[in-house]
Amino acid sequence: GHGLEDAAAAASASASASATASASAAAAASRLEEASHAMSSFFHETESGKFVPRAVFADLEPNAIDQVRTSGLRRLFDSKHKQLLTSKHEEAACIYGRGMYSVGRETIDAVLDSLRLQAEQCDALQGATLTRASGGGAGSGFAPRLFELLYDDIGLGLKQPRIDFVVQPSPQISSSMVETYNAVLGAAATCEIDCSFVFDNEALSGLCCRNLEMDDPSYADLNRVIAQAISSITAAMRFGGALNGSLSEFTTNLVPFKYLQHVLVANAPLFPARRSPPTLPEMNKACISAAGQMASCDPAEGKHMAACLLFRGDVVPKDVGAAIATMKTKRSVRFVDWSPCSFKCGITYDALPTVVPALGYGVAGGEAGAGAGAGVGGGGVELGKATRGVTMLSNTTALRHMWRRLGHNFDLLYSKRAFVHWYGAENMEESEFSQARRHVESMIKDYEEAEAEEHEDMAKRRASFR
Known about the structure:
Structural class: alpha/beta
Oligomer: single chain
Number of strands: 11
Order of helices and strands: HEEEHEHHEHHEHEHHHHEHEHEHHEHHHH
Radius of gyration: 25 Å
Helix content: 40-55%
Strand content: 5-15%
């Protein structure tokens, strides 16, 4: 009798172990499938099993692209994908006209071929994103020309949005005397873009100094902070969760008027590894404060037309409701009177907030490479890891102060026609300057009108402007 019982117990244990193993294998397969789906959003798997970024790196001068070619990042590309790294040997020289017309026109076909190749490898193309700096010649001139051709040459549909991550000129920090010209001209050239997320180096430097306790942050450190924000914004495209949103949902919910498509970004937490992570209420507070914005703009100086809160990691809907209830009590969070609701929310609970390595991709890839620490890698402060994160995207009328500042600096230069002859040498006409300036002024009036209690028909005023 004991022998039969032992045999039955052994069989039962074996069946239980087999069932456990099957469940573990199924769970592992499910995780692998989820990871593969997350990778496929931004990486294409080749026949050899290599994951290649769904990205094209382009510039009109070779230095920035050479940093990728000589760093550890080059291992992401094989000989068949060298066309994804495109550069010219004749730079734009910080002149909008060179990027838009002369040098840019010579480069555009090679970049479009690379983009077309990437689009053909997508099973379900959601849209296109662009990362640029509006103060340079390529970012202000070449990028708008590229965006104009996405619909015709790449086959992007009207429901597949074009998203822009743009670094605007800072109030005090400047890398070029003519970056204000470029920013204003570029703003008029990209007025048809669907949504534009705004950054500037001065605000990013302040975040690095205050939050990461850096004395002299480098451009690589600023790029790391931007990468953190972009990772959070695009998390819903890669991972599952509740109340998720796609690129088209961002544009639908954040852009109430066609020409007011610029959006402020705030991302938390941002702290050094030697510190303990902040609590969720502290993160929410940082996202609505002026010091937490990634562009030099105080949301308290205007009203929100639309806002989006993206939560990531160990967050449940109850936490989201509590966060919104607290934010509504703050004076810095005011909405226009015609907005029917406050926040659009997204929760991505399948992935913890990403931390970009501090040593730089060149070092992480096995070798430093020439210039790898300048723009590709990171600085010497390690970012702290957290189990949850918050990103706030807000389309606020306070952005009019940024455009007013750029317009004022533009007027100071243009009143003396300073540096205009360099643009004329690229076959630009002075009428382009005045038309771009009128576009910025019309945007400022649109913001003022959106905040006012009595409303004018913006479409009619825009039609008269055009």
